Amino acid sequence: MNAKQKKTLIRIISAVALAVCSAIIKKDIIKLILLIVSYLIAGYDVIISAVKDIINGQLLNEKFLMTVATIGAFAINERTEACAVMIFYQIGELFQSIAVGKSRRSISELMDLTSDTVNVIRDGTEMTVNPYEVEIGETIVVRPGEKIPIDGLITEGETEVDTSSLTGESLPAVKRVSDRAVSGSVNISGVIKIRTEKPYDESTASRIAELVGSSLDKKARIDDFVTRFASVYTPIVVGGALLLVLIPVIFFNGEIGVWVRRALSFLVVSCPCALVVSVPLSFFGGVGKASRNGILVKGSGYMEMLSKIDTVVFDKTGTLTKGSFAVDAVHSDALSEAELLDITALAESYSNHPVALSVLKAHKGHIHKERVGHVTEIPGKGLKAEIDGEEYYVGNPSLMDSIGADWKPCHLSGTAVHVSKGSSYLGHIIVNDEIKDEAEKAVAELKDKGIRKTVLLTGDRKDIAEKTAGAIGIDSYEAELLPEDKVTAVEKLLVDGNRTAFCGDGINDAPVLARADLGIAMGGMGSDAAIEAADIVLMDDDLLKIPKAIEIAKKTMRIVYENIILAIAVKIVILILSALGVTGMWIAVFGDVGVLILAVINSMRSLI
């Protein structure tokens, strides 16, 4: 509980204590003083706000209604009821503040993209400082295994950097002098020095943290509707209360005291607090529950849209697949499959390339590195290795062509690693990006949640796209697409009337994430650009979080509509009873603040 919430709680306890004391004490003047003090403690901010609104020309709102009704209640000797209105209003405000604060904390704790310290070189000495102290143009040092903390240019060293957080691709990127280093990526192999180009708070990782902090600022359309409804509803009920006094007194000789009481009860029950408070609170609860499940929803508007989605579109690499390779097949021409795999593993044994690692994993046996002599990397093609005194080549078709090997294409989809002894072709190994274990189940659950259509959009070859879509159960696919082609494909779905969500992770997915009705980024593996462009971020890249998010969104919207129906129905009944004189001020208090409390309690279900 923060300081403001503690202050509100103290006000509530103090106001209640004074009201209770007033009920015990018999002296009228002391009773009156205690109730006035209780009323002011509980409602001074409401009264001040109402006065400011009147000065600014914003006369008819819920604060004005509460102030007029409660002051009127004092005037007709219903002082305890007036205090109760203000006290219960503050209780509702406290519930709302606690619920919103809890959901905000749940969200902000999920995404720790920033660095606590930075190693910077000053006056020739390396020192560890707070990242906010690093200025543009200073040189920082990043060692293997460390996250790059600030955007900048590499001035010294060469390394491989895990760029999966930036591109969604599994292959590490080689970074040399003059290459740009982006915060959020991880240094893999060598020590590098970076000249910073931005202050820490403007670097990519910090921008993401800032984005998290403002995640609840965007309202849902239904939230805006409630605000507009209250602005129209309030002057109507004020006019109704005036007519409730004037018509009986002027035309039917009604007793003015009786009709003033009814009008005041009418004003108290007419306050739209339950709507104004409970609807956003329901969304905050839903956003908070989503965040606890590893789903960052950037605003209640996106929660509302998520509940209406009927089409989900996926990127492939890093989204439906793991972004890590595995051996699918070994096809040998001159050796046994085991011998071909053994030769390839020996050649790749000194590499940390993902394809090499997949071959070593498939080999499983002991690698006798003493059999390996000199290994030469051939950029963009593969490598040449001396094994048992013989020269072997391992790489792509371009490498085979360059040495005159008569290589053979494979009927299987995937990345082919070709192997030759000199120019004598030995065979090839097929390596594929592994499909995520939960992908098929996630697609099935999406269909159970009411998703009519699933689509795969990828830049990969058609055969790979077809194989991936078939294995997972996706309805349709489009392959060999550029980023702008993906946008075009999504726009076609939108034109056809589909409420479309796009799920991707790479920097090239940012345009289509922004174009879809709803963009869903894979947060753990995803690029900063994708996360910034998306409306929802899956923090641990678990595809099962998508149907979970839809489930939470639909439950949240059910609670929102329940609160709207509850508030309006109860208010209409009590407004009629108040106008007829059947109910008094206490029932009016329940009709206002009681419904508010019930709606808040119902809203808290969205957190469960």
Write the layout of secondary structure elements.
Elements: H1 3-24, H2 28-55, H3 62-75, H4 79-108, E1 118-122, E2 125-129, E3 139-142, E4 152-156, E5 159-162, H5 164-167, E6 173-175, E7 180-181, E8 186-187, E9 192-196, H6 204-213, H7 221-252, H8 256-270, H9 273-292, E10 295-297, H10 300-306, E11 311-314, E12 321-332, H11 337-348, H12 354-363, E13 372-378, E14 382-387, E15 390-395, H13 397-403, E16 415-421, E17 424-435, H14 439-448, E18 453-457, H15 462-472, E19 476-478, H16 483-495, E20 500-504, H17 510-515, E21 518-522, H18 528-533, E22 536-538, H19 545-580, H20 585-603
Parallel strand pairs: 11-18, 11-20, 18-19, 20-21, 21-22
Antiparallel strand pairs: 1-2, 1-3, 3-9, 4-7, 4-9, 5-6, 5-8, 10-22, 12-17, 13-14, 14-15, 15-16, 16-17
Q: For the CA atoms, what is the radius of gyration?
A: 33 Å
Overall pLDDT? 82
**Low-confidence parts, pLDDT < 50 over ≥5 residues?**
106-111
Shape: elongated
Physical arrangement of strands within the biggest beta sheet: 10-22-21-20-11-18-19
Secondary structure tally: strands: 22
